[in-house]
Amino acid sequence: MNLAIYVVGGLTLTWAAYMGYLWLSTQAIRGRPLEDSLRRHLPELERHGERALIYCYSAACGPCRSMTPLVDRLREEGYPIVKADLGRNPELAEALGVRATPTLLLVERGQVQAAGLGAKTRRQILKLLQA
User: Fold this and answer.
1) Domain locations in the chain as residue ranges
2) How buried is 85 (Cβ within 10 angstroms: 0-12 exposed, 13-18 middle, 19+ buried)?
3) Sheet of 103-108: strands edge to edge?
4) Which helix or strand (DSSP H or E) is residue 30 part of?
5) What is the C-alpha separation between 77 and 70, in angstroms, rounded?
6) In the CATH hierarchy, which top-level class contains the domain 2-129?
7) Distance of alpha carbon 48 from alpha carbon 99, whole angstroms
8) What is the spatial distance between Cα 51 and Cα 48, in angstroms, rounded to a whole number?
9) What is the pLDDT of residues 23-34, one digit of tens each?
10) Which of 16, 24, 43, 79 has the most CB atoms around its CB within 10 Å?
């Protein structure tokens, strides 16, 4: 019985530490300038001008599968959102510094101003766009 408690406790702590690492690495992206090479991977970013949201996703990501239709609807409504499929483009993930999907990056004047990790609702996405 004690062994089970230690195993479950150890797994819980490991999971919490990993989630903390992902959150911290996502927050570390803030303030980071976008490199010119990155703009080649995301040419659509230039069309949105000064401010846009980069939606980083992967086809293998469960939360992304539910969030992508929402992002597509927002794009159809004219919101400045650029999709970045990191599953097909791992070097883009490396260049952006994104370690998990879904991740949203608010880019303003070529610099990441805010970042959000995990699935978001419509309201949360719009709030991030207005940050």
Assistant:
1) 2-129
2) middle
3) 81-85, 51-57, 103-108, 111-117
4) none
5) 11
6) alpha beta
7) 25
8) 7
9) 666 665 666 767
10) 79
